[in-house]
Amino acid sequence: MAVLVCFGDYWDDAWRRRQQLMWRLARSELLDGVVYVEQPLTLFSFLKFCFGGGDEDARHRWRRVLRRGFVAKMKPREVYVLTPLTIPLRGSGFLLDLDLKMRHWAEVYLVRWFLKRYGVKDVLLWVSHPFLPLKTPERLGGNLLCYDCTEEFSEFAEYPEYARRRFYIADQSFTRSAKVATVVSDYLEISRRRVRQDVIRIPNGVDIDVFGGDGEGEPADLRHIPRPRLVSIGGINNSYHWELVERLAQTRPEWSLVFIGAVKVEPGLRRRLRRYPSIHFLGRKPYGALAGYLKHIDVCLQLYRPTDANRSRNAQKLLLYLAAGKPVVSTATGDVERLRNHVEVAKTDDVFIELVEQVLRQDTVAARSGRLEEAERHTWSERVRQVEDALRPHLQGVR
């Protein structure tokens, strides 16, 4: 029985790359099943949850865990989601080492319990981030099948220097030791080829069946927002170019700026943004409901700030926008240049505003058809086929 154990982020986090791949690999003829190990919940987050506090992701996960348990079977495709529990320790040096050890044992204990409980003998490991302690794969048998590098976490300014240094070391180690090393973007491919030459670039994909349809009727919380509506979908955080957002609100107050997703920004910035009547935060929406929102907007935006961290991105949201057939304006970050034929790319704030004005004035049936055709080239089914082709030579004789 060959089971793939994937170390991911949060299972409920808007159905991004990790969830999309694992959901589909659970049906692959190459495997007998998939186990998805989330990043640990903490006892402190539970206390905050009990008193109505904590961040939105943690609250959502605690509701699921209390309803379905720390080991949950997600139907219909038989993915088991494991949620470790630990006590967080903040600091550097000794405290950081102790925090990593506690996390390591929480993950290892829960995975070992699951494997013993279900009689799993052949374990294949998939690591999708460098937060995992280096010893974890070794403690679980050392069969690291794939390391899927999705972002340059060691360049994220919100993490302290000592944490970014550890991320870098872990990333390099996993890249070298995995049987298969995959990356999501051009930048990451160039960077990781300095570590090994056989790195495989597998970009993100899109659910054409979900976003290529007509969606539902106009959502109730969108009806009161005047047009034109400019939307940004996804996690709302410090990676955004908030100075550009404020400039849009100040110079084009007739444009409604709609943000759909969990908000994780400093309270001061959020209060400042809420002063603009044209900025609307609608919160996190169910994945299947997003198509209904996209149907009733005018322009889709990608607002990442041009930074070292953002240059490694291959944004999934661009493909969602294209699959909905909507015009897209983006800052010049990540792999957006690959989609320049269908996405308006702005290298300055002035150009960004001009491009929005341009697409609002004129959008054609031919342009919409071109976006849909481009999106159809990037389905998640095609991405899983690429993954299976990469893994197949390393799975001979495993089952």
UniProtKB/TrEMBL annotation:
Residue intervals of the Spore protein YkvP/CgeB glycosyl transferase-like domain: 243-388
Protein name per UniProt: Spore protein YkvP/CgeB glycosyl transferase-like domain-containing protein
